[in-house]
Amino acid sequence: TWASEDPLDDALNQAPQDATFLVIAPSMTRLSEKIAMVNRQLDLNIPDLLDVLGEFKRAAGLIAGIDDQGPLVIAVRRNNSEPDQPDDRSLLLLPVSDYTAFMQPLTTQEGGPIRRITLATEHEGFAKQSGSFAVIGKHRESLASHQPTNNAAEVRNSLGTLGNQVIEDSDVIILMHGEQIQHTLDSANDMTASNAGDSATNSGQKNQATVSGMRDALIQQASAPLANFDSLAPDAEGVVLGFTITNEGLNISGAINFKADS
To answer: What pLDDT is stored for residue 3 in this prediction?
Structure first.
């Protein structure tokens, strides 16, 4: 049985039970520092890359209450069956050290646990607290239906020893386990087709540093290798892909943990 006091475990506990897959930066500070390192090593001289985390916080108006060292989680949730739910119920989980301070500049609404927020970018959404995270989504229904996994140990065990090593070594991970693996592969195949059709349309346009843009870029990078897992999905208990930034570029690693009776 896997046992760990890693801060990532709290993120795995608070992630929604019905997530199709998770995109996780185990440490926002470490990821920001790695991007700054590449900016220097490759002489890119892009000011916004010197402090990606700081720029993100300033652009969104996140003045206080963020735990910079904590893990950021994008929980991709697709609606495949419920007509009263939005098609994309994805959630962003931001680590917070002081939820009240975090919310203060984002909303004037008082009352219930789910509150409407407005970012400095004028994007609107909803937020609530779950453990040591602020859970943010586009739709109130997405937050109302959020049920935390509360079982990080089971997720860790489903990935096996090699899968957990990938997590320890990576700056960004894509994680799936259990019955959600096949749903994830279906989403990856759909994303591959969608990105192929959108690539010409989006050429020449300046990318915006938004959460949805970061999510889509990571999904696009992962789509090709995930599509090759189709034949393995029935026997897989857990799958993880890891992305590690080095002086030489981006390393991609992965691990599949198979069911005991496969």
So the answer is: 42
Q: Structure pTM?
A: 0.80
Q: Which amino acid is at 202?
A: N
d(CA 149, CA 196): 33
Per-residue exposure over 190-202, b if at least 16 CB sit within 10 Å of its own CB, e if not: ebbeebeeeeeee
| 99 residue type, one letter | Y
**How long, in residues, is the chain?**
262
Q: Are 62 and 91 in contact (CB under 8 A)?
A: no
Query: For residue 135, what is the enclosing H or E element?
Result: strand 133-137
Contact 176, 22 (CB under 8 A): yes
Structure tokens at 131: 């453990």
181-227 pLDDT per residue, tens: 766 666 555 555 555 445 444 444 444 444 455 455 555 555 555 55
pLDDT tens, residue by residue, 239-259: 899 999 998 888 999 999 998
pLDDT at 209: 43
Compute the CA torsion angle 186, 22, 20, 184 (nearest 10 deg).
Answer: 20
Strands 72-76 and 91-95: antiparallel
Q: Which secondary-structure segment (H or E) carries 198?
A: helix 180-202
Separation CA 245–CA 242 (nearest Å):
10
